[in-house]
């Protein structure tokens, strides 16, 4: 079983987000991690590999820093990595999905895994778009995955419960929290990762030009949530204070 | 000259931090207050390869070396100093010493267990009346047939109450002074061993410590490390290594103090602004930053020399002395910044303050390191000898 996993490097969940002079998100000094949902996908791929004696290829898009994410996946046990550095000023989900689909179409694969969304922009579009381009079935937000011959049995979260769906392989499956508990890389794994192949591709290596992947969506503006206003203490005897509180909730906060 | 950590060491730093934050931090306060020793964390460190970082692959390690070890020790101590003691005592006590001086049988018998965490080892040199003056120890080992008969009492032995084996130093020929000391691997389940835990101590509450008494304890003669009489040299070499891990641990505690101090200085408001805006707080933060950076660089250099395989007693002493004092200064400053909240047990700063003290005492007190450094500088006694 050959499994391809999409991994994205994102801001640390605890990073403090700021905007720069141009109103763009400021990446300076922010620590970067593997997108946690993608980490579930890597772990699932490794479990499938261990059961089926398969092979896991991890793919990421980004600059040289994104190699950290790929090295982590290799240290966890993936076999090879592909880093695509398109060097484009503007990108959207169409851009990313077009490039990733082209990269995957050059590989042998039975299954494509990824996180159901990235924790930074949270668009939850890329995996679905890749499936569409490649003409594959897609199952989103999977919390349990069984591979049986040429089929995948996937349990996914739906409102108020779960749903079990079956799809033929190859397919695109996206991971939701709960799918598994990702392993740590071991020190031995970290050393072995250095010797594993990491292919580095530019847009032209995939036979694509910047014009073919011009984004269709552009972000107009970023803004931070307004800081939380100071709390207010309503003084006085309980009965009077309660009455004052209800009045404030109705007239000032307008929530009741 | 290159100050960049190689990629794999950056990855190991990240792994150690992830491990400490995800596995240790959530329960650290509760564990520490309960004086709870976490054997499960020892095994987890074994699985990840931490315990095998200076042992070659053929014996269950990964041979990543001393710089890796220093990074691990720092990141572990940054979250829980007690766990750092457990990590280092096992790895740099019996494990590395068996690998260096043990027979092939001893290596096969003990190293896979010590590197995986299935076995836990301690080392025993200190005695009630032999601290800094190690050579004044009284423990005796007398060869009778196939066994050495061990008698004596060891004190302040980290992990004594929980260890499976111990690296024990004792005199086989006291008339030869230091040249009559020998080193042994002792199974802690042997007859004639009594262990008493020392339960009341200032800090590092989750790292058990105790007294070991040997009364006619039979140690198989094949458990001798090296030859008779090599014990003191083995001991000094071992201390050189455990000192590195102590230096790194002190850097970790100092960093924890700084992390906490910055967080508090940015959130605590007095006189209408965060206290970090006051210059006297800034002065303390600046001094902490510089001390930590300097301590870390000294520690990394000592580790670098160890990986290179050249004498490094002097550099290791400098790192250990500076880092221990830095940890105590940082703990003091963090407590001043937290003030009454630092004095309470509500925040971890009080724990850092207690734990930091340990580093000025173990593996050579700060005064012993001053002796080593100054006597080398004055030309009285060269610190780096290639023996």
UniProtKB/TrEMBL annotation, chain A:
GO cellular component terms, A-Z: cytosol
Keyword Lipid biosynthesis in annotation: no
UniProt cross-references to PROSITE patterns, sorted A to Z: ETF_BETA
Alphabetical list of Pfam families matching this protein: ETF
Domain called Electron transfer flavoprotein alpha/beta-subunit N-terminal: residue spans: 22-210
InterPro entries: ET-Flavoprotein_bsu_CS (IPR000049), ETF_a/b_N (IPR014730), ETF_b (IPR012255), ETF_beta_N (IPR033948), Rossmann-like_a/b/a_fold (IPR014729)
Keyword presence, Electron transport: yes
Cofactors, names only: AMP
CDD domains: ETF_beta (cd01714)
GO molecular function annotations of the record: electron transfer activity
Key words of the record: Electron transport, Transport
Annotated function: The electron transfer flavoprotein serves as a specific electron acceptor for other dehydrogenases. It transfers the electrons to the main respiratory chain via ETF-ubiquinone oxidoreductase (ETF dehydrogenase).
Assembly: Heterodimer of an alpha and a beta subunit.
Family: Belongs to the ETF beta-subunit/FixA family.
Name of this protein: Electron transfer flavoprotein subunit beta
TrEMBL record, chain B:
Record's signal peptide: none
Transcription among keywords: no
GO molecular function, one term: acyl-CoA dehydrogenase activity
InterPro entries found in the cross-reference section: Acyl-CoA_DH_CS, Acyl-CoA_Oxase/DH_mid-dom, Acyl-CoA_Oxase/DH_mid-dom_sf, AcylCo_DH-like_C, AcylCo_DH/oxidase_C, AcylCoA_DH/ox_N, AcylCoA_DH/ox_N_sf, AcylCoA_DH/oxidase_NM_dom_sf
Domain spans labelled Acyl-CoA dehydrogenase/oxidase C-terminal: 229-376
Domain named Acyl-CoA dehydrogenase/oxidase N-terminal: residues: 7-118
Cofactor dependence: FAD
All copies of domain Acyl-CoA oxidase/dehydrogenase middle, residue ranges: 122-217
Domain of life: Bacteria
Alphabetically ordered keywords of this record: FAD, Flavoprotein, Oxidoreductase
Family: Belongs to the acyl-CoA dehydrogenase family.
Annotated protein name in UniProt: Glutaryl-CoA dehydrogenase (Non-decarboxylating)
Species whose genome carries this gene: Desulfofundulus australicus DSM 11792
């Amino acid at each position: 079983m050959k499994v391809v996993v999409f991994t994205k490097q994102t801001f640390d969940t605890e990073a403090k987000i700021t905007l720069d002079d141009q109103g763009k998100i400021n990446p300076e000094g922010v620590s970067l991690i593997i997108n946690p949902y993608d980490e579930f996908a890597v772990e699932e791929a490794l479990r499938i590999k261990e059961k089926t004696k398969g092979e896991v290829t991890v793919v990421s898009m980004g600059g040289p820093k994104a190699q950290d994410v790929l090295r982590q996946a290799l240290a966890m046990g993936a076999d090879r990595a592909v880093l695509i550095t398109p060097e484009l000023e503007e990108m959207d989900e169409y851009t990313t999905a077009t490039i990733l689909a082209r990269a995957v179409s050059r590989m042998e694969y039975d299954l494509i895994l990824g996180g159901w969304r990235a924790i930074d922009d949270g668009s939850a579009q890329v995996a679905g778009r890749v499936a569409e381009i490649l003409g594959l079935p897609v199952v989103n937000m999977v919390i349990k995955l069984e591979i049986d011959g040429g089929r995948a049995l996937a349990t996914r979260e739906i409102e108020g419960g779960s749903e079990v769906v079956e799809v033929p392989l190859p397919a695109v499956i996206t991971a939701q929290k709960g799918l598994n508990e990702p392993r740590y890389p071991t020190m031995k794994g970290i050393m072995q990762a250095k010797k594993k192949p990491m292919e580095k591709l530019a847009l032209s290596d995939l036979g694509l030009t910047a014009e073919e992947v011009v984004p269709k969506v552009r972000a107009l503006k970023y803004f931070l949530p307004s800081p939380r206003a100071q709390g207010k203490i309503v003084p006085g005897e309980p009965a009077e204070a309660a009455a004052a509180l209800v009045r404030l909730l109705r007239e000032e906060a307008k929530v009741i | 000259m290159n100050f960049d950590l190689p990629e794999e060491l950056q990855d190991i730093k990240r792994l150690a931090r992830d491990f400490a934050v995800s596995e240790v931090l959530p329960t650290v306060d509760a564990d520490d207050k309960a004086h709870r020793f976490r054997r499960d964390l020892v095994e987890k460190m074994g699985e990840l390869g931490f315990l095998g970082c200076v042992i070659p692959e053929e014996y269950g390690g990964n041979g990543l070396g001393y710089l890796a070890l220093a990074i691990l020790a720092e990141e572990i101590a940054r979250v829980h100093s007690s766990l750092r003691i457990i990590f280092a005592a096992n790895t740099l006590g019996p494990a590395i010493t068996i690998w260096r001086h043990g027979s092939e049988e001893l290596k096969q018998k003990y190293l896979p267990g010590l590197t995986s965490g299935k076995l836990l080892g301690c080392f025993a040199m200190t005695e009630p009346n032999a601290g800094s003056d190690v050579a004044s120890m009284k423990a005796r080992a007398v060869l009778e047939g196939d066994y050495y008969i061990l008698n004596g009492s060891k004190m302040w032995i980290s992990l004594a109450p929980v260890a499976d084996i111990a690296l024990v130093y004792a005199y086989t020929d006291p008339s030869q002074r230091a040249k009559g000391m020998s080193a042994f691997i002792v199974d802690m389940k042997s007859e004639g061993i009594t262990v008493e835990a020392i339960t009341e101590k200032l800090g590092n509450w989750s790292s058990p410590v105790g007294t070991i008494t040997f009364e006619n304890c039979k140690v198989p003669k094949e458990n001798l490390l090296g030859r008779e009489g090599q014990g003191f040299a083995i001991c000094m070499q071992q201390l050189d290594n455990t000192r590195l891990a102590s230096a790194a641990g002190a850097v970790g505690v100092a960093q924890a103090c700084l992390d906490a101090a910055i967080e508090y200085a940015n959130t605590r408001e007095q006189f209408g602004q965060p206290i970090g805006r006051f210059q006297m707080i800034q002065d303390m933060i600046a001094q902490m930053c510089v001390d930590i950076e300097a301590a870390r660089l000294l520690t990394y250099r000592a580790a670098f020399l160890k990986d290179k395989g050249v004498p490094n007693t002097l550099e290791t002493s400098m790192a250990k002395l500076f880092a221990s004092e830095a940890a105590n200064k940082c703990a003091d400053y963090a407590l001043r910044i937290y003030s009454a909240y630092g004095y309470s047990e509500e925040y971890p700063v009080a724990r850092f303050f207690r734990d930091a003290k340990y580093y000025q005492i173990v593996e050579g007190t700060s005064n012993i390191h001053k002796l080593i450094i100054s006597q080398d500088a004055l030309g009285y006694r060269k610190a780096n000898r290639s023996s």
